[in-house]
């Protein structure tokens, strides 16, 4: 066969395959089902704070709206991305191209979320981010079809850093997880510290999923800093705190947590975790509305919801309402409706979905209780103060979101 004929055959095969794929996707789009894909860490260090609990939170959101929206039955599917960006993008491409998934949610692990966001931006599908914190998701790598719902590194570090510096807490040294989330947390917190009049003496970065923190803690101890800021999460956070006590770090340094997950605290124990200050977007025992959601969640999961799990539920509630209001699953129509409708539920009051994808809402300064202050397993936090959303989150014009810059 000649090269020309061979090329023609390959072209026709590709054309037929593309047509069949489009026809299959179109058929699924008309099958009366709205598909939600929850992609999360089901088996790694974030599984307790996200994982199966995030799937339960999504199922609760679907049930709360009656299981159908805009004439479509809601179907929740889920997958474990194993904290690997290539695994995550493969799953999401398959979901969109062959499964007819309409919206992706969760995405814990910032490196994973940034990779997923690239795919959903290309495919023009909605991505409702809850467990991933890098502020780059709404900054230089923003997407017109994503919403970062629950928190970000800017908000988590901003209020905490200001509060600690205001109490005389300086200079700082960072113990940082060496991937997108930790790097963004250190960057955003460092800026907040210096803006508040504090000093940063340095940082040491550790690999993801580190077991032995001894060398990193010794570097921090010898830095001369008074504040040791933990820019990590999950088992990395828990190991760092417990080993800091083994090295008697608190004798000369105050530990500051820049990100805490509710499930970390019982696993770590209040004897180690007590008195850490941090900022969070949700606590189950803060209001009657948060308690009502939490009690129903607890019946199904056997644990109180983390902020990330609550965020999945809240984001999908808002999404379903927008689908109902527009009678459409078209990403552009739905996200436009989400932006113009305030978020009012157990998670946020008068929350706003901004053009850069940031859902702006109040954040809360918390302290982890001492063992003698806690009355039950999940009685863990003391609420200290509310940080208004417009003070907690990065201003729109400082994020560097490229499509916002073009629009303005």
From TrEMBL:
CDD domains the record matches: PBP1_SBP-like
Leucine-binding protein domain: residues covered: 34-369
UniProt xrefs under InterPro entries: BCAA_transport, Leu-bd, Peripla_BP_I
Cleavable signal peptide: 1-29
Short name of any one Pfam family annotated for the protein: Peripla_BP_6
Keywords of the record: Amino-acid transport, Signal, Transport
Family assignment from sequence similarity: Belongs to the leucine-binding protein family.
Protein name: ABC transporter substrate-binding protein
UniProt lineage: Bacteria, Pseudomonadati, Pseudomonadota, Alphaproteobacteria, Hyphomicrobiales
């Amino acid at each position: 066969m000649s090269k020309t004929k061979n090329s023609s055959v390959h072209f026709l095969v590709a054309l037929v395959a593309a047509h069949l794929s489009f026809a299959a996707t179109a058929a699924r789009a008309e099958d009366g089902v709205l598909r939600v894909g929850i992609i999360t860490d089901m088996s790694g260090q974030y599984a307790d704070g996200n994982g199966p609990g995030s799937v339960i939170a999504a199922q609760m959101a679907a049930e709360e709206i009656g299981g159908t929206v805009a004439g479509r039955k809601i179907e929740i599917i889920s997958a474990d991305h194993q904290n690997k960006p290539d695994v995550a993008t493969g799953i999401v491409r398959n979901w969109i191209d062959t499964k007819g998934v309409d919206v992706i949610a969760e995405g814990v692990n910032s490196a994973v979320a940034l990779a997923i966001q690239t795919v959903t931006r290309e495919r023009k599908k909605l991505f409702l981010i809850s467990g991933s914190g890098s502020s780059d998701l709404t900054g230089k790598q923003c997407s017109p079809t994503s919403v970062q719902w629950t928190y970000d590194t800017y908000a988590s570090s901003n209020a905490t850093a200001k509060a600690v510096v205001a109490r005389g807490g300086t200079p700082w040294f960072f113990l940082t997880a060496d991937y997108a989330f930790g790097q963004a947390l250190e960057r955003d917190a460092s800026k907040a510290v210096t803006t508040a009049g504090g000093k940063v003496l340095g940082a040491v970065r550790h690999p993801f999923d580190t077991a032995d923190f001894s060398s990193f803690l010794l570097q921090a101890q010898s830095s001369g800093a008074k504040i040791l800021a933990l820019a990590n999460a999950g088992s990395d956070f828990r190991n760092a705190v417990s080993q800091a006590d083994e090295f008697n770090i608190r004798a000369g340094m105050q530990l500051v947590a820049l990100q805490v997950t509710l499930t970390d605290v019982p696993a770590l124990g209040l004897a180690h975790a007590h008195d850490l200050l941090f900022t969070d977007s949700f606590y189950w025992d803060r209001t009657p509305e948060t308690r009502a959601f939490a009690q129903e969640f607890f019946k199904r999961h056997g644990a109180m919801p983390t902020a990330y799990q609550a965020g999945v539920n809240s984001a999908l509630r808002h999404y379903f309402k927008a689908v109902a209001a527009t009678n459409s699953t078209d990403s552009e129509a739905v996200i436009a409706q989400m932006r113009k409708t305030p978020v009012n539920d157990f998670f946020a009051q008068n929350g706003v979905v901004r053009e850069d994808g940031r859902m702006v809402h109040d954040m809360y300064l918390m302290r982890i209780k001492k063992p003698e202050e806690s009355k039950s397993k999940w009685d863990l936090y003391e609420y200290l103060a509310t940080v208004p959303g417009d003070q907690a989150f990065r201003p729109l014009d400082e994020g560097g979101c490229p499509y916002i810059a073009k629009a303005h």
